């Protein structure tokens, strides 16, 4: 179970992470990560109901649609993803919003497969800085 301060609940926060964050897709899931821009940010870290003093906490939300399977399968996938993300919260920048969206193949995937795809997506999102994501070389060509 995710601690209360690490849960993403409001629709506005989900939208912020999905629309303004970076995305990494894998065969089983898509991860959206919105880093806090600074002390002021967009205001989303100040507006959430569990704002505490000190560094803002990372908050995570999950989207598992009916395309993944029946309710029993969807709940299993959500529980697995919550557990996986909980173990990785420390590796994410403070104040980040993360949304993990399960794709239909996640319903038949093992825990290990979900962990592999989540790690690969997070590695991709954390590897590059958003300011330098447009290019990898001095020319900015990207390839």
From TrEMBL:
GO BP field: tRNA 5'-leader removal
Gene Ontology CC terms: ribonuclease P complex
Record-linked PROSITE patterns: RIBONUCLEASE_P
Reaction catalysis annotation: Endonucleolytic cleavage of RNA, removing 5'-extranucleotides from tRNA precursor
Enzyme Commission number(s) of this protein: 3.1.26.5
GO MF annotation, one: 3'-tRNA processing endoribonuclease activity
Magnesium is among the record's keywords: no
Keywords: Endonuclease, Hydrolase, Nuclease, RNA-binding, tRNA processing
Chain residue ranges for the region called Disordered: 36-57
Any Pfam family: Ribonuclease_P
Quaternary state and interactors: Consists of a catalytic RNA component (M1 or rnpB) and a protein subunit.
Task performed by this protein: RNaseP catalyzes the removal of the 5'-leader sequence from pre-tRNA to produce the mature 5'-terminus. It can also cleave other RNA substrates such as 4.5S RNA. The protein component plays an auxiliary but essential role in vivo by binding to the 5'-leader sequence and broadening the substrate specificity of the ribozyme.
Family from the record: Belongs to the RnpA family.
NCBIfam families: rnpA
UniProt-recorded name of the protein: Ribonuclease P protein component
Source organism of the structure: Kitasatospora acidiphila
């Amino acid at each position: 179970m995710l601690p209360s301060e690490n849960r993403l609940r409001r629709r506005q926060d989900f939208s912020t992470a999905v629309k303004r964050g970076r995305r990494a897709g894998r065969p089983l899931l898509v991860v959206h990560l919105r880093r806090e821009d600074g002390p002021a940010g967009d205001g989303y870290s100040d507006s959430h109901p569990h704002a505490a003093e000190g560094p803002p906490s990372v908050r995570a939300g999950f989207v598992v649609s009916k395309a993944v399977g029946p309710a029993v399968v969807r709940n299993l996938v959500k529980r697995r993803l919550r557990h996986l993300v909980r173990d990785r919260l420390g590796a994410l920048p403070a104040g980040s919003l993360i949304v993990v969206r399960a794709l239909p193949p996640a319903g038949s995937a093992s825990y290990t497969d979900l962990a592999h795809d989540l790690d690969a997506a997070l590695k991709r999102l954390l590897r590059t800085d958003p300011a330098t994501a447009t290019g990898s070389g001095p020319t900015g060509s990207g390839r």
